[in-house]
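Run log, item B.
One chain of 224 residues. Sequence copied directly from the ordering sheet:
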Amino acid sequence: MAPDHDADRLSLPVDIDVLIAFAESGSPGVDAESAAAGARIAERLLRGGAVAGGSIGDLGARRAVMAVPGWTVQPLAASSESETTATRPVQKQRDRELGIEFARSPAGAEQTRISVHSFGTRAAAGDIVRVAVRLGAERSELLVVLYADDDGTLTGQVVTRALTMSEDLEISLLPGAALGSTHTSAVTDAVRCSLTAGRNAWRRVAKGLPAGDPVRAAIVAGLS
């Protein structure tokens, strides 16, 4: 019995069915070379559809990223030092695949507030929202730990000088267990710019790690 690819096709372009039909067609006018090419393309697309449904830990294959453009001078010009926090401009963006709502706003004294909320099923408390900042050929990252607020919603906030409203960003979701020695500097910075609830969330992450773990040491450094 031939394998059922219907589930994979749900996340693929409509053209996949056209390619498969084209490859399988025996009608006149469809030469063997064209049919074979259609079959090869269809096979690659089907393999890609299967990868797209991979686990959250398979970050390289999943490539679930939300692109957040930098704000232009027009909305930024609406903000002034005399404005209260409630009236300052807020950039918000939601991504259904990640299940994340991202927001950033000026926080005064050349600082920016980053807020994230999870409305999907991909994330859990202790997972990390990674904010990658493009700076020409260089890249830097900001980590925001998720925790359950009073309403049970997964959320996270930091106030940082590391970015403004104008950078182009890439937002992705990272399991807390995926943090390692390459993230220690970013973890320490994240702890330092977290609010009280976020710092407490980082404490819980540290308690779950063995003594001598580089991430645990990075968290302790940020708390000190």
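Observations after the first pass:
- Strands lie at 66-68, 91-95, 100-108, 111-118, 128-135, 138-145, 147-148, 154-160, 169-174.
- The radius of gyration is 22 Å.
Flagged for discussion on Thursday.
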